[in-house]
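Researcher: I've got a protein sequence and the SMILES for zinc ion. Could you write out the 3D structure of the bound complex as structure tokens? I'd like something to compare against our soaking experiments later this week.
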Amino acid sequence: MRTRWLSILMAVIILATTLTGCAVEVFIDTPRAPLTVHVLDVGQADSILVQTAKKSMLIDGGNRADADGIMDYLRSQGVKELDVVVATHPHTDHIGGLVDIVKDFPVAQVYMPRVAHTSKTYEDLLINIKNAGLKITPVKPGLTVELDSGIEAVFLAPARSDYDNLNNYSAVLRLGFQNTSFLFSGDAEAEAEEEMLASGFDLSSTVLKVGHHGSNTSTTSEFLAAVNPEVAVISVGADNSYGHPSEQVLKRLEEADIRVFRTDIHGVITISSDGLKLTVLTDRS
Ligand SMILES: [Zn+2]
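Model: Sure. Here is the predicted complex with zinc ion in place.
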């Protein structure tokens, strides 16, 4: 039955092509939304793919062992090149996989906060970025990245260059598309959240990637109230030794009536936007 419909569909497409003389887009299943955000299941780490019709952006690359799985996932989604790679901050659970990804996958641009780290993983990443002929664009508040017409990401943090805690150097992005928006907060903690609140930037977002794997050092009540999301996503490993996500943060999200999706429970979380509404798909229910 499906084959028959498919041949009818193909016949219509061929006819349409013949009549109009131009190529017709073929959607075998549902058409791809103009914006899709994939929160990958990389355990106690972060890796997020943002896809538009024109560009692909990867925010963080999980731990070192996650590189191959992430590149397989990118290929499975038809990504041939990463136009933008954002390394939110130099901790291994965010940049680990990027070490091999910048070496083995075509990458056009790399954004990182201006902060050094002495770890081998960080040094390897810098070497591979250089060997790939790439330059690092330092992140600063107000810097924008256009992914498609009307789909733009704005960096909101880091605001300073003298934090004691590496997490507070996290590059934070707000991605907006018409009535929908996403806030990717890396591992930014209360201090950085407070500065974002004071910055005057619009923080309100339909979807919040909860900071620092749901740790209670992030997602203060004030910050959550300003973001005011409908959906929260937590990238976290099952039975991790940090006790993430914290009960306090989960309670705060629940009290604010926010739908919570977690990679340890739901696997890969895919959120599509047509500019007006969101569609959430998960690997596991
Ligand atoms: Zn982390």
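Model: The CA atoms of residues 42 and 69 lie 9 Å apart. The radius of gyration is 20 Å.
Researcher: Great, I'll pass this along to the crystallography team.
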